[in-house]
Amino acid sequence: MERSQARTGDLSWRLSSHPITLLFFLGFRISSLLFYLLGSLFTTNFILVFIITILLLAADFYYLKNIAGRRLVGLRWWNEVDPASGDSHWVFESQDRSGSPESGAPSQNATDKRFFWLALYAQPAWWVLLAIVSIVRLLNPIWLSLIVIALILTITNTLAFSRCDKFSQASSLASSAMYSGGMAKSLAGGLFSRLFRG
User: Fold this and answer.
1) Residue 99's pLDDT is what?
2) 79: alpha, beta or left? (left if phi > 0; alpha if psi -120 to 50)
3) Which of 187, 115, 121 lies closest to 154, judged by CA?
4) b/e map 66-98, b = 16+ CB within 10 Å
């Protein structure tokens, strides 16, 4: 029996550029769901299950936003508030992951990218499913409040990283168009030809 060789992009944590970061990321993503689902098997104290689930969700939010996003896919986001006007705006930052020798940037690991985006979108979907189950079964409404908090935290990260990824793709497309030579040469050539044609 032949063993198939793992290829780049497969869902195997061993292929990750940052396996410890990836394992902690997946651990935090899974732990809040598992504790919510299985916590009542270990204790009948709702408050304990609620608090531990909230702490796991907060740890997941922090780790994803500040560590895993930056190390696995090179994306970061934060929210800034203008002290003068009180307006808030989101700031997105992306690391060059082209792997080009000119920039000296590391290349994007396909395994890290697949794990990151799959886990990022899967967790809010699971919480939505749990919300539907909670509403249909008409369980204690306080459980629904925990699900709402989980949805707020997970959807915020999901939307922020999605917007950050779109921002990084748009900025890399614009920079490659401007600096690849084709667009810059045609703009400069057109400008100089108009100046000297008189």
Assistant:
1) 57
2) beta
3) 121
4) ebbbbbbbbbbbeeeeeeeeeeeeeebebebbe
Tokens 């539907």 appear where? 132
Q: CA–CA separation, 184 vs 99, rounded Å?
A: 23
Helix-, strand-, coil-residue percentages of the chain, each rounded to 5: 70, 10, 20
Task: Name the residue type at position 9.
Answer: G
pLDDT the model gives residue 172: 52
Give residue 97's pLDDT: 60
Q: Supply the pLDDT for residue 126.
A: 95
Single-letter code of the amino acid located at 81:
V
Q: What's the pTM value of the predicted model, to 2 decimals?
A: 0.74
* CA–CA gap between residue 194 and residue 198 (Å, rounded): 7
Q: Quick one: which of 172, 163, 153 has its CA closest to 91?
A: 163
User: If we measure between CA atoms, which residue out of 44, 57, 72 comes closest to residue 151?
Assistant: 57
DSSP reduced 3-state for 174: helix
